[in-house]
Design goal:
mainly alpha, ribosomal protein, 214 residues, elongated, 2 strands, two-stranded antiparallel sheet, 3% strand
Length: 214
């Protein structure tokens, strides 16, 4: 017995015991239908309850009243529908062919009038849209022309600057003069600048100002 208790003590730990206490089985309130009739109630015949005579008569009276009222409602609705059909047919029969033609022409006239009003509104809207579109296109053309003019001015300014720079270019005609000038005025890039912008060359002992021609 002690060994059995020790075995169960090892199986049912504290955490497992808490889990089992929190576990709740789901039960049916009554026996499911698929189990069939119990053997103890298999051959039992339920007793049919007898109604009181006054209760039976009262139920019959209420049922007859209900059927009578529903029949009256159905007859009333059927008569209303038949009367509406007769009135509609009478109105159609009373119209002569001339009246039908006049009514048709009136409908055509109204339709034509509505079409004209719609066409006038449409033309007005389209005219406004065309004017707005034309103004927008003209504005874009003016802006494009202005951009082209600005671009042309920038190009001409660059051309003028390049023409001014081209005066100092070495060409086939002035290459001999450029060589002689380079030999007479040699340029030395061995110099340094101080914080004040003074130029200090290796061959000079005194500082000199920055000369653009150097």
């Amino acid at each position: 017995m002690a060994n059995l208790a020790a075995a169960f003590t090892g199986v049912f730990t504290k955490a497992r015991a808490v889990a089992l206490l929190q576990y709740t089985t789901v039960r049916f309130r009554r026996k499911p239908r698929w189990l069939g009739t119990a053997k103890s109630k298999l051959f039992r015949v339920p007793e049919r309850k007898k109604q009181i005579e006054e209760e039976i008569e009262e139920l019959k009276r209420l049922h007859n009243n209900y059927r009578t009222q529903m029949k009256a409602v159905r007859h009333f609705l059927r008569d209303e529908v038949e009367a509406y059909k007769l009135v509609s047919r009478a109105g159609l029969v009373l119209q002569t062919p001339e009246q039908e033609e006049a009514e048709w022409q009136e409908a055509l006239r109204r339709n034509e009038e509505w079409n004209q009003q719609t066409a006038a509104k449409r033309e007005e809207r389209l005219a406004a849209e065309r004017a707005a579109r034309k103004e927008y296109i003209l504005e874009r053309l003016v802006l494009k022309e202005q951009r082209e003019m600005d671009k042309q001015e920038q190009i001409e300014a660059k051309v003028r600057v390049e023409k001014e720079h081209s005066k100092t270019f070495i060409t086939r005609d002035n290459i001999d003069k450029a060589i002689e000038l380079a030999l007479v005025q040699p340029t030395s890039f061995n110099f340094a600048l101080d914080r004040d912008g003074n130029l200090h060359r290796a061959a000079d002992s005194a500082p000199k100002e920055n000369n653009p021609q150097s």
